[in-house]
Amino acid sequence: METPGASTEPARAGGPRISLAALVAANAMPLYGVVFLHWKVFPLILFFWAENVVIGVFNILRMLAAKPSEGLVWLAKLFFIPFFTFHYGMFTFVHGVFVVGLFGGLFRQGASAPTAESVWQVVRDNQLHYALLALVVSHGISFFVNYIGRGEYRTTSLQRLMTAPYGRVVVLHLAVLFGGFLVMATHSSVAALVLLIVLKVALDIVAHLREHARLARPTQHIWGRSS
């Protein structure tokens, strides 16, 4: 005789595999860009930076969906969500300035900060639209399959969600930025760019698995106590 809830276990086990496959597929898009669209260092690093924005938007959605039945949590969201939006937004903006300035040549041109028009021009020139759309789809699948479907929104806390993107983004992009400088030193060879993409995918897989394992653990915080 099956135990209650046993029939849902395969679906729960399949969730991480589905979101992981989507993550790998989205991160494989730059391979097409490097091989067929002749991307150099800058569009590749810009693509990786754009994932910061996508991660931040979905983290806000996670915070909104967390612990929906607890009134105190909704009260806490009035503080945590605006604070995260400002803090993470500034972090992402400064990171973007360095990406565009160092790899896009903005600093050499004497400009102080990138504009939305200049970034969009790079997106159009390098046909980044579909790659960026793949990022959104990948993180959207993870949100609905893992966070909602596997019930992570019931076991996490606002404090945990506040810090979750930073651990993933900082380690990942330090490696990417360092790798980008090495690729520039090798004159942006295709082989070096492919190695950089493989490094990024490997780090992203590890970060993805750790993040969802952490979010699935029940918390005892006052604003996110487990039920």
- Could you report the average pLDDT, rounded to the nearest whole number? 80
What is the N-to-C order of secondary-structure elements (H for helix, E for strand)? HHHHHHHH
Biggest beta-sheet profile: none
Helix percentage: over 70%
Q: How many β-strands, per DSSP?
A: 0
Proportion of strand residues: under 5%
- N- to C-terminal distance: 28 Å
Shape: globular
Name some characteristics of this structure.
single chain; 227 residues; mainly alpha; 77% helix; 0% strand; globular; disordered N terminus; disordered C terminus
Give a brief outline of the structure.
This protein is mostly helical and 227 residues long. Helix content is 77%, strand content 0%.
Explain how this protein is built.
Helices cover 77% and strands 0% of the residues. The chain has 227 residues and is mostly helical. The radius of gyration is 19 Å and the shape is globular.
List the helices and strands and how they pair.
Elements: H1 9-36, H2 41-65, H3 71-103, H4 116-125, H5 129-148, H6 152-155, H7 158-185, H8 190-216
